[in-house]
Specification:
37% helix, mainly alpha, two-stranded parallel sheet, 5 helices, 2 strands, D-Maltodextrin-Binding Protein, domain 2
């Protein structure tokens, strides 16, 4: 049984990882994947590096930071390899109705970067 930390149940990693695990489990006689909730990309990379998981979902900038021991990591982590890309890098968009004063809505988001996601997930780490 392969453990695959994803993210929170409302996050994109879980929304992709759970159906991916289900697909593999339904069509493979040799591989079983258990998707697990987690704090997101940073935690997923740490779990794989530490041997607590065999698969993990992480975005490319966090893989680079982990490999080189850059923040949010405090040491180089190289006990992992990339086996595939699940989704291409996408732009994140914030939409607001014109009547709701777009500039005000943007300023609220800009000054609250932890609102982007779980405190240590990739969205929060990459937030301005």
């Amino acid at each position: 049984m392969l453990q695959m930390p994803t993210g929170g149940v409302t996050g994109s990693y879980y929304m992709i990882g759970a159906p991916l695990a289900k697909l593999v489990n339904e069509h493979s006689k040799q591989i079983r994947i258990t998707p697990n909730t987690s704090g997101g990309g940073v935690e997923n990379l740490r779990r794989v590096e530490g041997g607590m998981a065999q698969l993990g979902m992480v975005q490319v900038e966090l893989m680079y930071a982990g490999w080189h021991g850059e923040k949010p990591f405090n040491k180089s982590m190289r006990n992992w390899r990339v086996i595939g890309i699940v989704t291409p890098v996408l732009a994140n968009h914030v939409l607001a109705l014109a009547k709701d004063n777009i500039k005000t809505a943007f300023n609220r988001i800009k000054h609250a970067p932890d609102q982007a996601g779980v405190r240590r997930d990739g969205a929060a780490v990459g937030a301005p």
